[in-house]
Amino acid sequence: MSEFITYLKLGYLHITDLNGFDHILFIIALCAVYSIFKWKEVLILVTAFTLGHSVTLALSSLEIISVDSDLIEFIIPITILLTCVANFFYKFPRSIYKKPKNKRWVRYVLASFFGLIHGLGFSNYLKSLLGSEGSITLPLFSFNLGLELGQILIVFLVLIVNFSMVELLKIKKKSWNFILSGIVFGMSLMLIIG
């Protein structure tokens, strides 16, 4: 049980670590277009991302695939940038009772695909933690669970901020999306250039 808790904490701390804020930026970009009333949809979206990164995290940890870590560290900010660009073209429904004209499945597919890339970014960290572990099943599962719990925390913080800006401060949804996505776009561009 202590091994489970150890890797659960490591996964949680890894995703919430402000020093590795690229993954936090990605979660913010994923959530930028959503209101707190769409929390179930957002959790499905983030879980699609988790499934994607779980696959490559497992494959990389088992040394079935190997990709240059410098290349992955370059591509991760590009996934953030592309998510922000998609946000700029998001069409908000005029009423909370109307369904948006956007195809939700496209966002799920992109989140899953980008999750594959982010999983490769997590893998070097996890491989260094695993060292000479006999079985990686429990550490891999608990690390992924910790990542998911951290992501859910970030999701709810972003949704609360979105709610505060749109519902309390009365900033238009589209304007707030542009502001938030624009900030994340700029930060991801700095990561690419730097």
UniProtKB/TrEMBL annotation:
Protein name stated in the entry: HupE / UreJ protein
TM ranges: 20-37, 42-62, 74-93, 105-126, 138-163, 175-193
Keywords assigned: Membrane, Transmembrane, Transmembrane helix
InterPro entries per UniProt: Put_HupE_UreJ
